[in-house]
Design goal:
Layout lengths: L3 H12 L5 E2 L16 E2 L1 H4 L20 H6 L22 E2 L4 H20 L13 H10 L2 H14 L3 H28 L25 H16 L4 H20 L5 H20 L12 H4 L2
Parallel strand pairs: 2-3
Antiparallel strand pairs: 1-2
The structure holds the ligand CC(C)=CCC/C(C)=C/CC/C(C)=C/COP(=O)(O)O.
The site of ligand LBIIBCTY has 15 residues, from helix 6 and helix 8.
């Protein structure tokens, strides 16, 4: 009997449109293209007995491709192959032993793309929720880096208390750290924005052609955590801050700017960034240079 684990792996790959062993087109990235290799799940399916006969658990046909037929085992009950197949040459063979983690990640990505497309209801004027698009774009500006940076600088210049200056200086540091980290990650990961996105965003940096992680989501999580921890607000206002962050994140997917994972990871990153800011909290004691402007007045 094939082990349940093997069957599950083969089924999961089938669901993803990947056959466990097949002749693949070199140009097809979904089939590990670029190298023209075949996916040969050797360790899954070819743990043969020393005599060349496959173990009972390996009597599982996963592909009908000619290449695989040559190197695979027949279905249980079918006539056995006349001679054991010659081993595939090492060169040019792409061994792929997908772990459950890899399959889970691929499945997650497939779900991510599907869900993001479904939720992208404001991606264009003609989309099903196209009439809400202007509102979503307004929300987009509310989480943009420029208003937050300029707003913080303005408040800093007007602040007349040390406590206020300290908080604002740390908010400025948080916003700059966020811009830096998001730009670095976008440049490293280079995940393209969804195909249905229209690139009509208000002032962007060059890395903003990439989508992972969502800068709006990191900022929303960072700023809302910052506000909740450093401003004394009535409960309804606190709820409003959390709602703003959540809706801003959702609007990124609805506008077609991001996939769901870009936003989810963005929220997580922004949450972590706040912890870093809190840990490195700047004050006139540990960073007097930053406060020197005011001490001279
Ligand atoms: C000081 C400095 C370099 C300011 C630049 C501010 C700026 C242009 C930020 C870009 C904000 C933006 C468009 C982020 C993209 O957000 P996603 O949610 O689409 O990743």
């Amino acid at each position: 009997m094939p082990s349940p684990r093997r069957n599950a792996e083969v089924r999961a790959l089938g669901a993803l449109g990947v056959s466990a062993s097949s002749s693949s087109s070199p140009s097809s990235p979904a089939h590990g293209g670029g190298g023209g290799g075949r996916f040969e799940f050797q360790s899954l399916l070819s743990s043969r007995a020393p005599g060349g006969e496959p173990p009972a658990g390996a009597r599982l046909r996963v592909s009908d491709s000619p290449v695989h037929r040559r190197g695979s085992f027949p279905l249980a009950g079918a006539a056995p192959a006349q001679a054991p197949p010659p081993p595939l040459p090492e060169e040019g063979r792409l061994d792929l032993n997908p772990s459950f983690l890899a399959i889970a990640l691929r499945s997650l990505l497939a779900i991510d793309l599907w869900l993001s497309k479904k939720l992208g209801v404001c991606a264009g004027e003609s989309s099903s929720w196209g009439s809400v698009r202007p509102l979503m774009k307004l929300l987009e500006i509310s989480g943009h880096g420029i208003p937050w940076l300029l707003g913080t600088l303005y408040c800093l210049s007007r602040s007349d208390s040390w406590a206020g200056r300290e908080v604002l200086m740390n908010l400025l540091f948080a916003l700059l750290l966020d811009l830096l980290l998001v730009s670095l990650l976008k440049g490293l990961v280079r995940r393209r924005r969804p195909a249905h996105n229209q690139m009509d965003m208000f002032v962007t940096l060059s890395v903003d052609k990439y989508s992972f992680p969502s800068g709006h989501a990191t900022r929303a999580a960072l700023v809302s955590r910052f506000i909740l921890n450093h401003l004394v607000l009535a409960i309804p206002l606190r709820v409003l801050v959390v709602l703003w962050a959540f809706i801003l994140g959702l609007s990124r997917v609805m506008l077609g700017r991001h996939n769901v994972t870009d936003v989810a990871c963005g929220f997580f990153l922004g949450y972590l960034q706040y912890s870093v800011v809190d840990y490195c909290w700047l004050s006139p004691h540990n960073a007097p240079v930053l406060f020197v402007l005011w001490s001279q007045q």
